[in-house]
Specification:
The chain is an alpha/beta fold. The protein folds into two domains: 3-65, no CATH class; 119-443, NAD(P)-binding Rossmann-like Domain (Rossmann fold). Helices cover 36% and strands 13% of the residues. It is built from 14 helices and 15 strands. The protein has helices spanning 3-9, 16-36, 39-44, 48-65, 128-140, 194-199, 201-206, 222-232, 268-286, 320-329, 349-361, 378-388, 413-419, 427-443, and strands at residues 76-77, 103-104, 119-123, 143-148, 167-171, 184-187, 235-241, 300-305, 308-309, 334-337, 343-345, 347-348, 368-370, 375-377, 395-398. The protein has a seven-stranded parallel beta sheet, sandwiched between helices. β7, α9 and β8 form a beta-alpha-beta unit. α5 (128-140) packs across α11 (349-361), α8 packs parallel to α9 (268-286) and α10 runs parallel beside α12 (378-388). Bound molecules: nicotinamide-adenine-dinucleotide. Residues 123-124, 126-130, 147-153, 173-175, 188-192, 207, 239, 241, 305, 307-308, 314 line the site of nicotinamide-adenine-dinucleotide (NAD).
Length: 453
Amino acid sequence: MSSSELKHRFPESQSPNTYDDSLSSNLMAIRATCSSANPINYILREQRLHCMLLGIVIATIFFLLFPQSSSHDHQIVTTLTKPMKIMPRMLDQQIVHYPSQIHHRVGRIPLGLKRKGLRIVVTGGAGFVGSHLVDRLIARGDSVIVIDNFFTGRKENLMHQFGNPRFELIRHDVVEPILLEVDQIYHLACPASPVHYKFNPIKTIISFLSLSPSSLTNVAGTLNMLGLAKRVGARFLLTSTSEVYGDPLQHPQKETYWGNVNPIGVRSCYDEGKRVAETLSMDYHRGAGIEVALDNKLHVRIARIFNTYGPRMCIDDGRVVSNFVAQALRKEPLTVYGDGKQTRSFQYVSDLVEGLMRLMEGDHVGPFNLGNPGEFTMLELAKVVQETIDPNAKIEFRPNTEDDPHKRKPDISRAKELLGWEPTVSLRKGLPLMVQDFRQRIFGEQKDTSFVE
Ligand SMILES: NC(=O)c1ccc[n+]([C@@H]2O[C@H](COP(=O)([O-])OP(=O)(O)OC[C@H]3O[C@@H](n4cnc5c(N)ncnc54)[C@H](O)[C@@H]3O)[C@@H](O)[C@H]2O)c1
């Protein structure tokens, strides 16, 4: 070994021998301290106790100030009573708000063990209901892919999500197949207002059924989405409608009621389209004649949605709430069809979105009525609109439209019991939020998209 190497290893004033001597004398001193002294004495000496106490105080302050590692104030729910069916990315932790389940606030979760967001497709996500659903899913921490052909939907409904890395928008018609790797599919794509679904009735049905160019069997819309769900093992939720009850002979309507639908009327493209979509979904759920993975079933959920209103509805789409609000704002008479004594139930959109998400996350296939059981005649609704917007608004009567149902009111006992869900926003509370949005869109007033729901 050269002298330069030795110099490098030992301080200049120390020879190798003196270094060994000092090391061994230090070791002996430490051994003497440890073996002879009492451990309490050891802690009390040289400020050790002070340092320990100081460390404990600092750690306590830190954990009080930062109880959770996540910036999102999410609650992680562990289902203790009924474990959910395993979904590819759902594993054992769900982020939902179920009053019936037990909530555990978990403290710091080591990086890499945090709940993974789901990847979710929302067809029709640029529409009225879809865009609100997208907002809730993204706020929950999931990644959302919207599929929409913009027939009635608008990019404006989603523009506030552009640039969010967990959001994607695909212009695509659901009658064409598409392949995406996802955990859940909310299937909303379908024109929902009479003005739009009557515009191209054949297309309305096609959104649910059509002839596949390859096999010439009934395939498309709903079938495409069911096929996608099956292929990738995703859970599938169909947004059906109270229109499946037609002009109901039972009141209020329970899910067990089979309905009273005119199969050849002008509304049939919508009503029958949705009824067949339900049939297909149930056939897929039962796994009839379909090769499937895992437990031989596709996890399907069916929601029967009753009249829903809120910000981002299409203006002038022929639906009664949007009609009345737009007419009152423009100082036009409110058009009431028939004698105005027909009844409807009006649900605010945030209540619906909550119901859809609970249905998707829950254990029950359905169908579930999702609607507000508060029942209003058209004349009563017109009165609420007058009170909210313009007490002097006039009412104009017109002949009723074909096959207009006389009564509509959901029985929501099933959703209450099995989903722990019921609407919380009354018409008088929800309507002003919609009016604020319509006023901005009709008169171009300054935009405020923060709908307080
Ligand atoms: N809003 C209600 O009161 C109500 C009541 C019952 C059922 N529903 C159901 O809820 C769903 C959403 O309704 P909404 O009120 O948001 O309607 P909407 O018209 O605002 O939204 C429907 C969306 O689907 C898109 N779409 C239509 N056909 C498509 C196709 N072939 N491919 C891709 N995208 C397509 C439209 O562009 C639009 O963005 C619909 O399935 C509707 O039948 C709604």
